[in-house]
Amino acid sequence: MTRTTFASPDPAAPGLADRLIHLFTLIPHWLIALIARIALFRVFWWSARTKVADGTLFSLSDSAVYLFQEEYKLPLLPPELAAHLALLGESVFSILVILGLATRLGGLGLFGMALVIQLFVYPDHYNEHLPWMVCALYLAKFGGGFFSLDALIARWTGRKVAFA
């Protein structure tokens, strides 16, 4: 008669948690960076578009100035200047981020904008702003990834990293 024994699990064999962690390490940086770039672009570009007068590309609308006067009320800046700076920052930084051109600068700029929004405009909306900040900081730290103009410039110039 054959006797069956049940061996204890091999302590050297990876457990479920180890296997899951290994799977997460296989997610490439370029994919995370691309998703972060798209997410930030969508939020900030469309926010910039709400500040633009109908039928124009970059002319500030009266309603945008009104919001900065009556609702946002940023300290230290006149409402019209704050509205112009917000439109400029949201437009330029979001374009840089989606193109992956000077991605680190664009990410840092959008992080700064999200921080100002969080601290001075809508301090109770951290659930909305923290993901923006994480995406922006990720891009500021790691760059735009393989599918970015920064990486393309780095490949053309033979450098390890341009701004990627």
UniProtKB/TrEMBL annotation:
Membrane topology category: Multi-pass membrane protein
Keyword terms: Cell membrane, Membrane, Transmembrane, Transmembrane helix
Keyword Membrane attached: yes
Record field: transmembrane: 20-40, 106-123, 129-153
Principal localisation: membrane
Compartments, as annotated in UniProt: Cell membrane
Stated family: Belongs to the DoxX family.
Name the record gives this protein: DoxX family protein
Native species: Labrys neptuniae
